[in-house]
Amino acid sequence: MSSLSFPAGISELAVDSGLQDIAEKVYAGQRLTREDAIRLYQSDDLLTVGALAEYARRRTAGAGKERYVYYIHNMHLNPTNFCVETCRFCSYANPAERGRAYTWSVDQVLAEAGKGAALGINEIHMVGGLNPACDLAYYEDILRAMRAKYPQIHMKAFTAVEIEYLANLEGLSYEAVLKRLVEAGLGSMPGGGAEIFDDQVRERMAVKKTPGPVYLEIHGIAHGLGLKSNATMLTGIGESIENKVDHMLMLRGQQDLSGGFQCFIPLKCYYEGTDIEAEVKEPTAADLLKDVAVSRLLLDNFPHIKAYWIQLGVELAQLALSFGADDMDGTIGEEKITHAAGAKTPLQLAKERMEELISTSGYQAVERDTIYNIKAVACTEPRLVETPMSERLSAILAV
Ligand code: V47
Ligand code: SF4
Q: Which atom of ligand 2 is least distant from the CA of 192?
């Protein structure tokens, strides 16, 4: 039994929505099953599911941090958009883009990073296409040059997909590749490239890279080397509820073994420049909030759930904070992958704006570093949300 009391009325809500047994498990801190998660997804009672997730978020946060929502001052950097793969949902590196493919020199990467350094960023999230011209030595050079010039910037870089590609390109093991990158200055790994682990969805989307077990193996090796990493799930590519739940359960199982995942990030596919829209179902706002809430409840061993505002949009990301998310990602600067596929979100959010978005959602903004050390608790106090959550929810769902 938790020392936190259940949010007012939640037990009654849960009875009304037929989720009382799950609510009791959440309250008792018991692990949810596959069937529980499927029922949460199938429930029409979004607010009760959200309230359960909010309760779980507070308990995971720990005493005194119940209302903390984290963000980081960071930028994204993509040294190449050429990719030998042709995943059907990817507009960033699809064949039509090949005519416009670019590959930066180490100096160009440094020049881009310099723009972020001038703004005082403390993390670079660096990922790119699978490009035979970008071998292990190229990335080692980037990491070494970055460490020499900008030692204050943490390099969160290389998805498991890129690690697999570099290992095959160089004829090295995953561990050998990771060790060389760590030696050159790699600080942690992002969660990209997981997509949906289900083989049939992957086949339909022409995803040939890094099957689920390999993604998990690479993250497990990274954790064994002392690296922290994140994990993602891409929705809107023809997946079922069961596919999503099974994806999360595979991540939960890996986390039980290796423990180095910090954060789970549900992603939403944008379709511009792809040919998949007619054969998939676009997630609704309610679906996206469920992904946040169910992941918070099912992934009981992940400390953080991210509301990725670049894809959710700022308003839905704010609302996701009341559905179990406790992280708004970062100020970001330039973002290419989702914007190549039609996202219209602004590209840069100043720190002050980020803090305002969090505090006006009723939470305490906390600036963090990549591995969740607290850099500063914002002086803006959580403000009462002017419109009640249920009204905000109906407004957003009506769009
Ligand atoms: O891996 C590809 C996805 C991911 C599209 O670790 C698309 O902190 C939408 O992984 N529409 C990259 N998404 C983003 C990512 C990420 C983002 C923020 C934080 C972190 C973290 C990781 O974007 C790719 C892929 O799954 N993606 N195409 C598309 N058309
Ligand atoms: Fe390449 Fe990644 Fe795009 Fe697939 S999703 S085509 S692996 S950049």
A: 2
**DSSP helix/strand/coil, 70:** strand
How many CB atoms within 10 Å of residue 326? Answer: 26
pTM: 0.94
Cα(236)–Cα(251) distance, integer angstroms: 19
Pair 353, 374: CB distance under 8 Å: no
Give how far Cα 119 sits from Cα of 50, 190, 231, 266, 368, Å.
36, 22, 27, 28, 16
Q: What is the pLDDT of residues 189-234, one digit of tens each?
A: 999 999 999 999 999 999 999 999 999 999 999 999 999 999 999 9
Contact 266, 288 (CB under 8 A): yes
Say yes or no: CB of residue 202 within 6 Å of ligand 2: no
Which of the ligands is closest to the CA of residue 208?
2
- Ligand 1, CB cutoff 6 Å, lining residues: 89-91, 190-193, 195, 230, 232, 234, 265, 267, 269-270, 308, 329, 337-338, 341
Among the atoms of ligand 1, which is closest to the Cα of residue 271?
30
Q: Count CA within 13 A, CB hemisphere, residue 39.
A: 14
**Domains of the chain, earliest start first:** 10-61 (no CATH), 68-397 (3.20.20.70)
Q: Do 127 and 74 meet the contact criterion of CB atoms below 8 Å apart? A: no
Instruction: Tell me the ligand closest to 126's alpha carbon.
Output: 1
